[in-house]
Design goal:
The protein has helices at residues 5-9, 13-40, 66-82, 87-102, 106-115, 117-139, 142-152, 162-176, 179-195, 201-208, 212-215, 222-231, 235-262. It has 267 residues and is mainly alpha-helical. It starts with a helix and ends in a 5-residue tail after the last helix.
Amino acid sequence: MKLDPATLFLPLIPGMIAGLAFLIGLAVYFGRKERVRMGEAGITADTEFTGMAVSQYPEARRPKLIWFNAALVITLLTLLVWGILPLSVLMMLAFAIAMIVNYPGVADQKERISAHAGNVLAVVSLIFAAGIFTGILGGTGMVEAMSKAVVGVIPPALGPYMAPITAVLSMPFTFFISNDAFYFGMLPILAEAGAHYGVAPEAIARASLMGQPVHLLSPLVPSTYLLVSLVGIDLADHQRFTLVPAIAVCVVMTIVGMIALAFPFVA
């Protein structure tokens, strides 16, 4: 879309805050519901917990460096928003600083990296598999055909509302196809269609990000497989439970984002 990252990201902050508040509300609701279920099942606080420990590697904790690590995270987030350097460069620099300060010895650094190597390799292999699937969709022209078919069924009367339409479309399409296929294949066509009705490309770009909570339930997201494997549940069960709340988060973020753009003082 040839947009500056800050131009794209900063107006999304009100919607992100609203989404976060909604998620906290969901967490409170699920927590209270779980307390009721545990009470009915006769589970008390003294019941032995057999799940994952709070810290899988207690020897790796650095409680004396908590303030340094907090400052490093805040600084990284500030620079990411500021856009002073590419995101990947900032992340690598922050990682290098964190490793050197928390684990000065090379052996300790290797041990920390090795401890997470298994999960990383699993995720990387899934990314390659998703990349193959994306390549098939893009190379055969299926993504372009789907994009044109979707744009073709949008009535001209709804043309000025291409931004909220894009927000709605981003939910199912980022679920069934990868982010690359959606953003490289469909988004330019949606933006071009919106431009004919005077809709700014940055509005289409921001709207296209609203479906990410649903996207994280997609079988094309490697981190989701890692999540369900760590907690020992089936992916389909996770999707059935989380789909409706994820859609609700998308709706909340979209509505608040539209209000923030209509009333700039809110942002």
